[in-house]
Structure formats: structure tokens, C-alpha cells
Write a structure and sequence with these properties.
There is one protein chain. The chain is of the alpha+beta class and 411 residues long. The protein is 38% helix and 11% strand. It has two domains: 165 residues, 2-Layer Sandwich (Endonuclease, Chain A); 224 residues, no CATH class. The protein contains 16 helices and eight strands. Helix 3 runs antiparallel to helix 5. The C terminus is likely disordered.
Length: 411
């Protein structure tokens, strides 16, 4: 019997095919070198653990996120194995779904990671036909071979704990930054260095990846990679997904309110609010008053000076809501317009712009000054990942200004 073969030419096409397979299949099998967790409607969010018949994951190079193992241990530990040690690298990327006598398979370059389904250049094949079609039968047999291999291991808590410690110490792959180096070498000393077009500003942002902090351990990450999704764009995507689900802060789940507000599940980019006690209590208790102030800022379209001033004065009058907390909320709701003024960026803001805002009127003045730069008013680029950067262009200025100090840590 002859089946149907479809070329999946990019990450978006692969993502759509994977999601369709998840919905269609009654049983799935997979073998992936790496698997990671991400939001914004990624396939991970839709992985039907109840349908898993056999799954095998690689752990080499610490490319699989340990939270993946925790989740699968909870939901499908008797049906998922890990390749703990092999002579070579465990490197397959294959997914097979079956329903009745029919089957679909996706095989090619894509790992099960956020980048593989969003920004990477990927090429895969989708096969569709009867379960007894030879290519399908062979793929099922290969996955079963991995699953039953003496080199595979059951998921257990001890293994996961041991792996997490390795994952935390993993080495990040080098980046070819010299190919896109900005004219300023990735640094800005004054506002005049920001009087540039989109292409130069984009290069400045890309130059921040792997920039080490001076006083504390850690470094900047703007764009997530297959092995590291702790990045500015990951935070943007997750907050975007929260607002897509509920347009108002008060209507969100407690976890999503925390995410948007910069604590709990937040990665901390654009301001970490872990020490803001009254603010955290306000958010946890439903964000009364704060949500109404944030609602004055539309998610799309023009924002007037009056909107900014009225919303800011309303929010800043609430107990526990300082400028850092408030601008965090503004910057993640409208990252195309607002910059976060936080404890790790305020000194650099003062250096670059000559002063740092302390109230609503001064923050409005800073916002309008930033929006006058050519890159801030540039047309959206065609490239998908560039468009993501462009859509968060003002908030991402934080990546050039962010420098946590030892006294306070990241914040």
C-alpha cells in the first residue's frame, strides 16, 4: 500500500502538523533527542500524555528540560524511557500517531523544543497511510527498539534529581556573534547611541546574548535556544499567552497574574518583583484596583499621554505599587511602547538618558523620548523571529540596560 508524503518546509508547518497529529491520533509514540517546555500555544502544552504508548527521550548535552521529566514521571512514567548512556549521541526526532488502522508520522530535523517549532530553520517529512505501510511499520519498530533497549532507563525521582543538577551546570553552545556585531560592539553609553534604525538596533539586541553580568553570576539571554529557554522572548511569549486567554489582569488565574507581575512562574526578565511584599499580596488577592488601572492601556492601537498619566497615577496610588512594579506591568502588556524601570536597570537608565524617572510625569517623558528613536517607529520586518523582536522592541531595551548589582541581585 502506498502512503502520502508531505514536505514540512519550516518550523511553522511542522508545528501545525504535530498539533494536528495530537488531535487526530488515539495513540502516540515518539523518540526525541531533546524535549523542552515553553508557552504561547507550543506543542508541549498540547502533548496528550494519556495517549502516549511509548516515548523515549535523550539526555545528552542536557538538552532536555528537567521539568519535562517531572511532568512525564507524573503523567506517563510507565510509558516513557530515557536514554541515559550510549556510546554515541541519541539523536532521533520522530513522532508516530495511530488511529484505528491509519497512521501518521513526522520525522526530520526538529527536536521537541520551543525553538524547533518557532524560530529554527527546520525540514521534516510527514508520512500518512495504513499502519501496515512499510515505512510506518519500520518507524514503530525503531521506537520500540529504543524503548526496550538495555541502555534505556525508567523515569524515577532519583534519576530526575541527578539529571537536574547536571542540567543546571550545562555548557551553553557558542554563538557566532561576530557575524552580526553592532557598530557599538553591543554597548550604549548615551542616548545618541540609540538614534539608529531597526537593523542596527536589532544587532544591538542580538549582541546581548551571553553578556555576563558584572557583579553577580549570570548572563543575558534575548532569544531562547534549544537548550536554554530562560530568555526575554520566552517571557514575552508566556505573558502574551496569558493576555490572549484573559485580557484583564483580574480575570487571570493566580499563576498567570503572578507571571504577568514578575514573580512566581516569571523568569524575572523586565523586572523581578520577588521582594515586593505588598505588591505580591495585592496581585495574589485578585489585583483589585491595579487591574482597572492596567485596563486603561489598550493591548493594541494608539496610546495617548492622557491614558498613560491617568493609568499611572491610579496605579501608583495603590499601596505597594511603586514605579518598578507598575512599569513591569506596562512593559509586558505593551512591549512595543513601554520600558521597565527596575532596580537592575535604573542606574544604566540614569547614565544613558541623564536621569531616571521617579513618578508618572517623568516616566511619560522618558517613554516619549524612547518612541522618538527611528527604530521605535520603524516598519515591522518580514522575518518571523525579527518581527517578534520588533513587537517587543521598547521593552527589550531592558536587555541593554539590565545590570543587577550584588547588593540586590537581579530585580
Amino acid at each position: 500500500m502506498v502512503g502520502l508524503t508531505t514536505v514540512l518546509k519550516d518550523a511553522s508547518a511542522t508545528r501545525s502538523a504535530v498539533l494536528d497529529l495530537f488531535k487526530w491520533a488515539t495513540s502516540i509514540r515518539f523518540a526525541y533527542a531533546w524535549m523542552s517546555i515553553d508557552g504561547r500555544g507550543s506543542p508541549w502544552e498540547h502533548l496528550p500524555t494519556s495517549k502516549i504508548e511509548q516515548g523515549v527521550l535523550g539526555l545528552q548535552f542536557a538538552g532536555t528540560h528537567p521539568d519535562v521529566l517531572v511532568h512525564l514521571h507524573s503523567e506517563a512514567k510507565d510509558r516513557v524511557q530515557v536514554m541515559y548512556e550510549t556510546a554515541g549521541t541519541f539523536h532521533p526526532k520522530v513522532l508516530v500517531g495511530t488511529a484505528g488502522n491509519e497512521a501518521r508520522a513526522i520525522i526530520g530535523s526538529s527536536n521537541f523544543t520551543a525553538a524547533a517549532f518557532a524560530s529554527n530553520y527546520e525540514l521534516n517529512l510527514e508520512l500518512a497511510g495504513a499502519k501496515d505501510w512499510r515505512p510506518i511499520k519500520d518507524l514503530i519498530a525503531v521506537i520500540n527498539g529504543y524503548y526496550t533497549s538495555p541502555k534505556s532507563r525508567d523515569l524515577d525521582e532519583r534519576l530526575i534529581d541527578k539529571y537536574r543538577s547536571v542540567w543546571k551546570r550545562r555548557t551553553r553552545p557558542p554563538r557566532l556573534k561576530a557575524l552580526t556585531r553592532s557598530r557599538n560592539g553591543g554597548t550604549i553609553g548615551s542616548a545618541s547611541d540609540l538614534d539608529i534604525g531597526w537593523d542596527e538596533y536589532r544587532d544591538l539586541l542580538l549582541d546581548q546574548d551571553d553578556r555576563d553580568f558584572i557583579d553577580v553570576e549570570g548572563s543575558i539571554r534575548v532569544i531562547p535556544t534549544a537548550t536554554d529557554d530562560n530568555a526575554y522572548l520566552t517571557e514575552v511569549r508566556r505573558v502574551h499567552a496569558a493576555f490572549e486567554k484573559h485580557a484583564s489582569l483580574a480575570g487571570m488565574s493566580r499563576e498567570n497574574r503572578q507571571l504577568v507581575s514578575g514573580f512566581g512562574p516569571s523568569l524575572g526578565w523586565f523586572g523581578r518583583m520577588s521582594g515586593a511584599g505588598y505588591f505580591k499580596q495585592l496581585v495574589n488577592d485578585g489585583a483589585k484596583g491595579l487591574s482597572e488601572a492596567l485596563d486603561r492601556i489598550p493591548r493594541r492601537g494608539a496610546i495617548t499621554d492622557k491614558m498613560i498619566l491617568e493609568a499611572s497615577k491610579e496605579a501608583l496610588a495603590l499601596r505597594g505599587v511603586g514605579l518598578g512594579c507598575w512599569t513591569r506591568l506596562l512593559s509586558v502588556k505593551r512591549p512595543d511602547t513601554f520600558l521597565s524601570v527596575n532596580s537592575a536597570s535604573i542606574n544604566r537608565i540614569r547614565t544613558v538618558f541623564g536621569s531616571a524617572p521617579s513618578g508618572a510625569q517623568a516616566y511619560l517623558k522618558l517613554t516619549r523620548r524612547i518612541l522618538d528613536f527611528p527604530w521605535a517607529s520603524s516598519a515591522p520586518p518580514a522575518n518571523k523571529i525579527e518581527r517578534e523582536l520588533w513587537s517587543a522592541r521598547v521593552a527589550l531595551l531592558d536587555a541593554l540596560l539590565y545590570e543587577p548589582v550584588a547588593a540586590t541581585g537581579p530585580g
